[in-house]
Structure formats: structure tokens, C-alpha cells
Amino acid sequence: MENRETTCCFSGHRPMKLPWGMRETDERCIAAKNWIARQLEELYALGYRHFISGMAIGCDTYFAEEVLRLREKHPDVTLEAAIPCSDQAGRWNSRQKQKYAELVEACDSVKIFQEHYSRECMLQRNTYMVDRSSVLVACFDGRPGGTMNTLVYARREGLEIRLLDVNAMNNE
Predict the structure, then answer these.
(1) Cα–Cα–Cα angle for 23, 60, 1, rounded to 5 degrees
(2) Which residues does 67 contact at the CB level (< 8 Å), separation at least 6?
(3) pLDDT single digits (tens) 21-75
(4) Using one digit for the tens of pLDDT, what is the confidence trace for 73-106?
(5) SS (H, E, C) the chain
(6) C-alpha Rg value of the chain to the nearest Å
(7) Lowest-pLDDT range, 146-150, 157-161, 163-167?
(8) By C-alpha distance, which of 130, 121, 119 is closest to 152?
(9) CA-angle at 53, arms to 169 and 70, nearest 5°
(10) What pLDDT sits at residue 172?
């Protein structure tokens, strides 16, 4: 197991909860990706080397992509995929499935919690990530859901939280 003190995990919304939806060329999406990249650079400078993503579409994907960019500059960076279920990408479109497959292939390690989707596998995935990390980076809009639950658990467990309020990006 990686060292918790040098491990960071991520939680964030899927496109339907993001102000820009699926439009990755939207200025707000680009700003969110840049914010994630800055957090990763800062965390790397502080000694963080292992990063865990839940690999969902949307913000999890942005995080994984930015970790891989960081790894290009710093080969000691590792990316772990914490996949809630084997069929996570089952309902995604072909482009999303292809990107997902490429990201999973690029990961240094993969943890899959169960074969098929259930609420429990999502909770297991989120708990696993928090339990192995000392920092949580998150993109959050304040609404109830998996990201809120992960943030609440991370706070209770004493993780440092670096938070981007995606609602604030509506006015940019």
C-alpha cells in the first residue's frame, strides 16, 4: 500500500452537475482543469506522489488526465484507478468508453470493488480513496450526492481538503 501521507484522492461531479456539461472547450471547464493542475503541482512540491481517481466521466476524468500530465514531468508520480464496478463504463458512449479504457490502461494500479453497479460499490470506492489519502481535491456544487458524502467523510477523517466551488464558475 502507498504511504497515506503522500497520497491524494479526488472527488467531483459528473457532467450533468457541471455548469458546462460535456463541453470541455468551455472556458469554465478549462479553468477547472487548470485549477486541478495547479493543485497537483502544489501537492507534488509538498511531496505527494500517489494519486487516486474514481474514474467516472467528468471531473474524475479531468483529474486522471492532469495526473498523467504531471507524471510526464515527474516520472515518480503514480495514478491509481479506484473503479466501483467492472461495468462502470457500460452505459457511456463510445468516445467516453475509449477515453476511459485509455486512462485505465495508463494507470499504475487498478482496484475494482465489484462486478456490477450498486450504491454500495460507490461508497466502498469513496471510502477506500479517503482511507488511503491525506488530501482530498474536489470539485463540488454544494448539492447532496456522492461528492458531498465523500467530502463529509474526508472532513471527519481529518483530510486536508482543496475545494473548487463549481457554482462560482457560473459567473465567469
Answers:
(1) 165
(2) 40, 51, 53, 77, 79
(3) 898 999 999 999 999 999 999 999 999 999 999 999 999 999 999 999 999 999 9
(4) 999 999 999 999 999 999 999 999 999 999 999 9
(5) CCCHHHEEEEEECCHHHCCCCCCCCCHHHHHHHHHHHHHHHHHHHCCCCEEEECCCCCHHHHHHHHHHHHHHHCCCCEEEEEEEECCCCCCCCHHHHHHHHHHHHHCCEEEEEECCCCHHHHHHHHHHHHHCCCEEEEEECCCCCHHHHHHHHHHHCCCEEEEEEHHHHHHC
(6) 15
(7) 163-167
(8) 130
(9) 80
(10) 45
Residue 122 has pLDDT above 90, yes or no: yes
Let me know the angle formed at the C-alpha of 64 by 62 and 69, rounded to the nearest 5 degrees: 95
Residues 67 and 61: their CA atoms lie apart, in Å, by 10
CATH architecture designation of domain 4-171: 3-Layer(aba) Sandwich (3.40)
Nearest Cα residue to 56 out of 117, 143, 141, 131: 117
Distance CA 70, CA 49 (A): 10
Cell of 2: 502507498
Nine-digit cell string for 3: 504511504
- pLDDT reported for residue 30: 93
What percentage of the chain carries pLDDT values higher than 90?
A: 84
